[in-house]
Sequence to fold (225 residues):
Amino acid sequence: GNSVTQMEGPVTLSEEAFLTINCTYTATGYPSLFWYVQYPGEGLQLLLKATKADDKGSNKGFEATYRKETTSFHLEKGSVQVSDSAVYFCALSVGNTPLVFGKGTRLSVIA
Amino acid sequence: NAGVMQNPRHLVRRRGQEARLRCSPMKGHSHVYWYRQLPEEGLKFMVYLQKENIIDESGMPKERFSAEFPKEGPSILRIQQVVRGDSAAYFCASSPPDDRREQYFGPGTRLTVT
Fold:
C-alpha cells in the first residue's frame, strides 16, 4: 500500500535556524509528492509539490527535492521565522488515488 | 475567488444526535473530498465525490456516516447517532477537474461530541 512516514515532533528552533523535516514514502506506482502546512485553527494549505524524480518544489523559502532512489521528500528552509510555526504534513498521491498523509510535524520557532 | 468554505466551524453534539457538516468547493471545482483528523494525527481520507456521484468511499465507516454532493448546493457529510469517538476535525477539499492531485482545503469543522 501507499504510506508516508515523517519525523515526529515537536521541533523547536530559534529564529533564523536551519530547518529539516524528514519525509519518506512507500508507494505502488509513481507518486506525486506534497508538503502541506496547517497554521493554528486553520485548514491545510499546499506549500509545495513535486511530480517526478529530481524535481524540486519550492515556495516561501521552503524547498523539497523528490528523491526516488531514497524514496524521500525532505522539507528544508535555510532561515526560519516565528511565523513559520505550524504543523507540516508530507503527503503523496498515485494517479487518481486519494492523498495519503503523514502524521504531521509540529514546528515551533522562538524569537 | 473565494476558497473552500465549510460550516459550521465548530459543532457540539450530544451522543446519539446527528451532525451535518457542509462544504462549498471553490468556484469551478467539481471534485470534493472529505478527510478526518483525529487529535495529533494526520488526515485520513473518507470519501471523494463529484456532483451527484460518490466516486470513492473506501475511507468511510460502514455505518452512521454518509455523504452527498447534490447538483445544487454544498456537499454534506452526515453522521448519525454520534459517539464520542467521532470527535475530530473534518476537512473538506476541492480540486479542479483537470488536476485532481491539487487539492485546496477548507478551514475545517471541529466536531465535539459530549
Summary: Residues 3 and 26 of chain B are 5 Å apart (CA to CA). The interface with chain A takes residues 4, 6, 33, 40-45, 48, 56, 58-59, 91, 93, 100-108 of chain B (CB under 8 Å).
